[in-house]
């Protein structure tokens, strides 16, 4: 299927939806969706919203603000209150569902004001992992235009590149809470420690990585093609991560894996 055909399919899905509120995190998927919705529907019909909470790194908000200004998006931020939910804080296997409940609790009423549909940047590749948040968002009325158009992550990156979007090769991202093993309470200090450590890795020139929180231990995952870079800056990395509050810094030899914490779940839990 040609790129033009794939883009036309997405346009048809968005046109059918009418007015939309785009959950805009600034990643490759949500940025592509926000840009396309704005170009197709215009600012009057497409509102892009960034949800702000302790689980979102502060530089991600700045990134969204910059993109909105660069692309002329109608954009705003909203605060979500997942940290007020004791079930979310307990960090069970349904944490992502509770997070999406909190997101839809603010986006749903916002969309209702203009009879809009809440849309999320979920692609077809996302359907294969354990993602309870997707089910929760869909149950609350959200739709996934990229999935409905049959677009994979590779499709999103290719189309973004063709459209000249600088987000086309942005590394995969996720909320800071995803760095904590299930059962480890989600607290603001822990999230800040992860954010500080990951900011340090980014400053050292690494692109695709995670700092997984295991109490006093920070388990660092990096993409295989960045291992040499990491090792050449090992002493700086260790010092920076320890400065973020960790006593020990370990390198995961399996490298970066999106959703690696999900492997700790039993089959029965995931069913």
Cross-sheet strand order for the largest sheet = 3-2-1-4
- The count of DSSP E runs of length 2 or more, i.e. the number of strands, is 7
Radius of gyration: 19 Å
Q: What does the largest sheet look like?
A: 4 strands, parallel
Provide mean pLDDT, rounded. 92
SS strand fraction = 5-15%
Termini separation comes to 34 Å
Q: Helical region count?
A: 12
Helix content: 40-55%
The secondary-structure class comes to alpha/beta
Unreliable residue runs: 267-271
Question: Shape, please?
Answer: globular
Would you list the SSEs in sequence order as H and E? Answer: HEHEHEHHEHHHHEEHHEH
Descriptive report:
Residues 267-271 have low confidence and may be disordered. The protein is an alpha/beta fold. The chain is globular and about 55 Å long. Helix 5 (95-112) runs parallel beside helix 6 (132-139) and helix 9 (188-203) packs antiparallel against helix 11. The chain is built from 12 helices and 7 strands. The longest helix has 18 residues, at 95-112. The two termini are 34 Å apart. A 4-stranded parallel beta sheet has the order 3-2-1-4, sandwiched between helices.
């Amino acid at each position: 299927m040609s790129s033009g055909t794939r883009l036309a399919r997405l346009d048809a899905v968005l046109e059918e939806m009418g007015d939309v509120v785009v959950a805009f995190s600034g990643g490759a998927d949500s940025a592509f969706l926000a840009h396309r919705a704005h170009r197709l529907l215009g600012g009057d019909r497409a509102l892009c919203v960034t949800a702000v909470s302790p689980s979102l790194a502060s530089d991600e908000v700045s990134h969204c603000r910059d993109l909105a200004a660069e692309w002329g998006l109608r954009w705003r931020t909203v605060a979500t209150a997942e940290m007020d939910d004791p079930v979310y804080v307990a960090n069970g296997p349904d944490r992502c569902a509770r997070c999406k409940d909190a997101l839809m609790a603010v986006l749903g009423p916002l969309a209702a004001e203009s009879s809009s549909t809440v849309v999320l940047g979920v692609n077809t590749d996302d359907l294969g992992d354990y993602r309870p948040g997707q089910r929760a968002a869909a149950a609350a009325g959200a739709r996934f235009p990229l999935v409905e158009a049959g677009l994979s992550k590779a499709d999103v990156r290719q189309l973004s590149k063709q459209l000249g979007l600088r987000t086309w090769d942005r590394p995969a991202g996720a909320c800071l809470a995803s760095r904590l093993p299930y059962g480890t309470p989600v607290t603001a200090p822990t999230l800040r420690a992860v954010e500080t450590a990951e900011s340090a890795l980014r400053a050292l020139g690494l692109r695709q990585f995670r700092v997984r929180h295991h109490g006093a231990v920070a388990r660092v995952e990096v993409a295989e093609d960045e291992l040499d870079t990491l090792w050449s800056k090992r002493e700086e990395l260790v010092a920076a991560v320890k400065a973020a509050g960790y006593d020990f810094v370990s390198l995961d030899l399996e490298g970066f894996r999106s959703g690696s914490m999900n492997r700790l779940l039993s089959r029965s839990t995931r069913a």
